[in-house]
Batch of 2 targets.
Target 1
Amino acid sequence: MSITVRPLGGSEWPAFVAVDYEAFSATYPLEMADRWREVVELDRLLTAFDGDLMVGGAGALSFEMTVPGGPIPVAGVTSVGVLPSHRRRGVLTALMTRQLHGLHEDGREAVAALYASQAGIYGRFGYGRAADTLSFRIPTHGSAFTRSAPADPALRLRVAAPADALPGLRRVYDAVRPGRPGMYARSDGFWKTEIIPDTEHDRGGMGPLRCLIAEDATGARGYALFRAKAGWNEHGVPDGEVRLLELMASDPAAYALVWRGVLDRDLCSVVHAGRRPVDDPIMHLLAEPRQLNAVWLDDLWIRLVDVDRALAARAYAAPADLVLEIEDEVCPWNAGRLRLVTGKASCEPTGAPPDLTLPVDVLGAAYLGGRPLRAAADAGLVREHRPGALRELSAAMAWDPAPWGCRVF
Ligand SMILES: CC(=O)SCCNC(=O)CCNC(=O)[C@H](O)C(C)(C)COP(=O)(O)OP(=O)(O)OC[C@H]1O[C@@H](n2cnc3c(N)ncnc32)[C@H](O)[C@@H]1OP(=O)(O)O
């Protein structure tokens, strides 16, 4: 089988959707692809052909994503799929290789990010697991806060229609985003098609999308987007549930108030809060944090497309002056030695002997500051040639707060 990879042609969007739909065993009504059409950038979609049959596709979104120190351009890789009839014959490999080489030649983004459908897929292409996420299942009867939970009498909680509340949601999201690595700017289209849509399919058996806003005279300071479903058990005791989709606040008092609004919902006995940051302050607010019943998952995967530019683009938490020997089979322009000097964030080729040797996926995993390089070294993935070099780089790359992308793209 000979596979050709090329950009999507003018009339090929329906075929791209059909491949994706089949690859993902999707259940959404096909018209919903029109929604995604508002977000995707058609000129950044790649397709793979077996003869004249489209058998795979992959896309990239032009994001501004926060990394340690502030936002930078990042390619958000998405809509990757291969027809079941053509799996495990190298179609994804051809797409990923072409995409990474294209990003390098294009030069707009030195970093690519994605959410993986399965955690075993992307390491071979140089992506590292850079952020984690926790999902909570909180029984409302066990959700009392500690006595030191903050409160602000100027705040009030308001029930709002999500579409009407959009300016307030954006105000809060855009206040939080620049401070947390992994969060990315949302276009109007992204808010409208990914965050607030509310069809039967979006509801998935739950109620409509609901919104709580915490605000004062200046406007919104926090919000929650969620779905709920009331219910009673066989004894007549209320046991409805809340599914929290997003909760964001620009200050601690607003954060605590919005959470209380979600946890205190009448007739609901449990709150499922998916994809929360691993340093979510709710862990400090609950008097009995075991009631979080946390489950740990991978969040963003990061690929340093151009290692030198990517390392020079972020800030560092501690001084470091090191020679790194990078291993990168997929993007050979990265393989070699770079001198990283953190104070001025410069990263230049050098012939000096290396202090550390590490594969590009390990560096990608550490890039957002949430995965200690030291732990990767303990797993045997980093080789230290100068004693102390590992500790130096690990401390420099660590960052607070923990990385988190919030919503899958
Ligand atoms: C960012 C996103 O969009 S994530 C969404 C990814 N898409 C999906 O999950 C949809 C359903 N799955 C698919 O479409 C396909 O099975 C894909 C895209 C995951 C893989 O496509 P393929 O063309 O089969 O991959 P390809 O043949 O290039 O495999 C390359 C290597 O990855 C491995 N691989 C492929 N899929 C997986 C997987 N799901 N888990 C672990 N390893 C995998 C292959 O075994 C192969 O390994 P090898 O080089 O050691 O032989």
Target 2
Amino acid sequence: MTTQIAIETRGLTRRFGGATALEDVTLQVHANTITGLLGRNGAGKTTFMSLVTAQDQPSAGTVRVDGREPFEHADIIEQMCFVRDNQRYPDDYKLKHAVRAAAIFYPNWDQATADRLIEAFRIPSKSVVKKFSRGQLSALGIVLGLASRSPITFFDEPYLGLDATARGIFYDELLRDYAEHPRTIILSTHLIDEMDRLLERVIVLEQGRVVHHEEVDALRGSAFQVAGRSAALESFVKGRKVLSQRSIGGLATAVVGEAPTAEDRSAAEAAGLEISAVSLQDLVAAYGVGDTATENDTTETAARGASRTERSAA
Ligand SMILES: Nc1ncnc2c1ncn2[C@@H]1O[C@H](COP(=O)(O)OP(=O)(O)OP(=O)(O)O)[C@@H](O)[C@H]1O
């Protein structure tokens, strides 16, 4: 079966004055998948989404959506919904106005989904949208994005200001609606650990360039974490592709950029080391492109990983 391509970019580049926000991005987004768009602040995630949805024009390169150039083609643009983290609404807009406008614009609009989510998120109906809290604004964006049922839907950090309960509602509703109505969803996020269960593929951007674009399971399988006593760990990782390494006192952890073999597992066990899977968040950070944890955080992580080994070895 051939994979359907929803979005294809070639050499996509966006410069702002002397700064390059996106550089030579060539990729294909598979149709009917949920893809995470990851990368540190300023990596180019919003710029990428703006270009694909024709809200901005590239300095060089091309975008194709379902094989066609989206810019100034209303029939393609109306197939896409871009939920921005800083979406603005007219000053006098209340909830009903935003919903009514979306219902007119999006051909696949589903009012029952909108009504259910408005209730679940407890979005106020009386006040104007410009007085909404940050979390209420995010919730409104999520309602419009999911109820649009757009064949291609972009969410740019959709969780800003949402409390943990509301984020849980979003994740559950997204999965439920996607299962019932498969479509192409692209989410930019810094909450990788929290959202990794949603993601089938990831695109990782670093300073405007794509550094990874693959299935989450393949990315996860490409590395492992090893923890234990520093001396044993040093000799275990010698000659291996070490992506990151931390130590505190006599304990250390390392992320090794190789798929672990049965021999690796027995060698680690014999040396009193513990091998474990790397979380997507840690893996992205280990490749040098995730949010940088503070030195204390990472040292604590090293100590936690290592002390688990100590306990299991005891
Ligand atoms: N309109 C603009 N004018 C000038 N520079 C811009 C403009 N829009 C984006 N940039 C720059 O382009 C780069 C990429 O920005 P972008 O917003 O795409 O990053 P991002 O990955 O979405 O970041 P974040 O995670 O912080 O939202 C940044 O350096 C940003 O300052």
